[in-house]
Amino acid sequence: MLKGEAAAPPAERVDVVQPVLWAVMVSLAAVWRAHGIEPDAVIGHSQGEIAAATVSGALSLEDGARVVALRSRAILEALGNRGGGMLSVGLSAEQVRPRLERWDGRISLAADNGARSAVLSGDGDALDGLQAELTAEDVRAKRVPVDYASHSVHVELIEDRLLADLAPLTPRAAAVPMLSTVTGEWVDGTGLDARYWYANLRNTVRFAPVVRELAELGHAVFVESSAHPVIALSIQETFDELGRDAAVTGTLRREDGGLDRFLTSLAEIHVRGAAVDWAALFPGASTVDLPTYPFQRRTYWLESGRRRPPPRTPPAPHPPTRRSGRTSSGPTSPRWEPGCTWTPTPWTGSCPPSRPGAATGPRPRSPTRGATASSGGR
After folding, report:
1. pLDDT digits (tens, 9 = 90+) for 39-91
2. CA geometry: angle at 321 spanning 318 and 326, to 5°?
3. How far apart are CA 236 and CA 223, in angstroms?
4. Range 209-219 burial, b when 16+ CB lie within 10 A, else e
5. For residue 28, which of 261, 259, 258, 251 has the smallest C-alpha distance?
6. Residues near 122 by beta carbon (within 8 Å), at least 6 away in sequence
7. What is the per-residue pLDDT for 289?
8. In this structure, what are the phi and psi dihedrals at residue 37, rounded to the nearest 5 degrees?
9. Residue 179: exposed, middle, or buried by beta-carbon count in 10 A (0-12, 13-18, 19+)?
10. Strands 326-327 and 107-114
11. How far apart are CA 180 and CA 113, in angstroms?
């Protein structure tokens, strides 16, 4: 497949793209760690939670690979081309739920992503009907390019198969805390067995509620460990809804997956307060003190109580200016030079408001709760 040979499966096929994405997400998390960014917690979205569990240590590399490879194969063989699909909409989960009632279970809430984004799944013709309604109301509604319906009743067709395929898993205690987007609760890792990974594919992804809980706990730096940002916007939506600041960054970008792109992402969270291990990037280098600015310690506002020179007396008028034997403005019109008087204005103790976009001074860097690795994927 990597060589582009004719007999190779297409890269977008589910049993190809999901294992590849899992490998990329796990690998990128290791790159972040090699540069000093250790996560305080991990979360994952749908199949991205397999990568999150691997990063946390709850799943070994072998078990993580087993889950993503065998589960995606089951999706291909049993769920693909059965008329199912998925639909991304620009509504919150609360706004979209009432619209699903009349579809009698044919459409499910697949993912609660953020304040203005959700994903639906189910029968393709039902999704087409709902999409037409939303588009007529000027609501964003876009089909996800897949031919299966994850997180819907369709998944029940492969329940027994997944429980058998994933029975050999040996989950273990996680080294990094993991907040489950399946249950909405913290998991210790030992319960991430075959039944859990079936539920991960069948149930609604509770992504927005999980991000909201992390925000309440003080997490303020989020790194999406993926080949292209998919859920970073949803994280930012949730923080905007809460009225809180957060540093949210991806890792790589589509068509921009080299070292320069990673270093840019690294710099983005460094300037927002994350502690980057620059020595790992520049072995043998050291920091130096920059020369300081010689502050003159003079104020630039008027102060009350300071003695000022008395007002200047206006000068005597000049004689009239003559042109061709006549005055310029009449025989008695004088010409005046401008004068200036000084009136002290008391200092109020505060600066006037700055214009929009203007900085009034440096803001101290506040400590963050830590970097939260967030894996994304369909």
Report:
1. 999 999 999 999 999 999 999 999 999 999 999 999 999 999 999 999 999 99
2. 140
3. 12
4. ebbbbbbeeeb
5. 251
6. 84, 85, 103, 105, 106, 107, 108, 149, 152, 153, 154
7. 87
8. -95, 95
9. buried
10. unpaired
11. 14
370 phi and psi angles, rounded to 5 deg: 135, 170
Please choose, from the candidates 20, 21, 48, the residue with its C-alpha nearest in 3D space to the C-alpha of residue 207.
Answer: 48
User: What does the block give as tokens for 31?
Assistant: 């790159």
Residues in a beta bridge with 122: 85, 107
C-beta separation of 53 from 192 below 8 A: yes
Say if CB 341 and CB 312 are below 8 A apart: yes
Q: List, edge to edge, every strand of the sheet that includes 178-179.
A: 186-187, 178-179, 39-44, 371-375, 221-224, 247-249
Tens digit of pLDDT for each residue in 285-318? Answer: 988 888 887 777 777 777 766 555 555 565 555 5
pLDDT of residue 362: 30
State in Å, rounded, how far the first CA of the chain is from the last one.
Answer: 21
Q: Which two tokens stand for residue 2?
A: 């990597």
Pairing of strands 247-249, 322-323: unpaired
Token digits of residue 369: 């709760």
Contact status, residue 189 vs residue 173, Cβ threshold 8 Å: yes
Other C-beta atoms lying within 10 Å of the C-beta of residue 154: 23
Closest-CA residue to 35 (of 269, 277, 265, 262): 277
The two three-digit tokens of residue 364, written as one number: 């101290």
Those residues of the chain that have pLDDT short of 70 are 304-378
Would you call 283 helix, strand, or coil by DSSP? coil
Q: pTM, whole model, 2 decimals?
A: 0.79
What is the DSSP code string of 288-343? -PPPPP-------S--TT---PPPPPPPPPBPPPEETTEESS-TT--B--------
DSSP H helical segments within the chain, as ranges?
14-34, 48-56, 61-74, 93-100, 124-136, 159-165, 194-202, 207-216, 232-242, 259-270, 278-281
What confidence score (pLDDT) does residue 314 get? 57
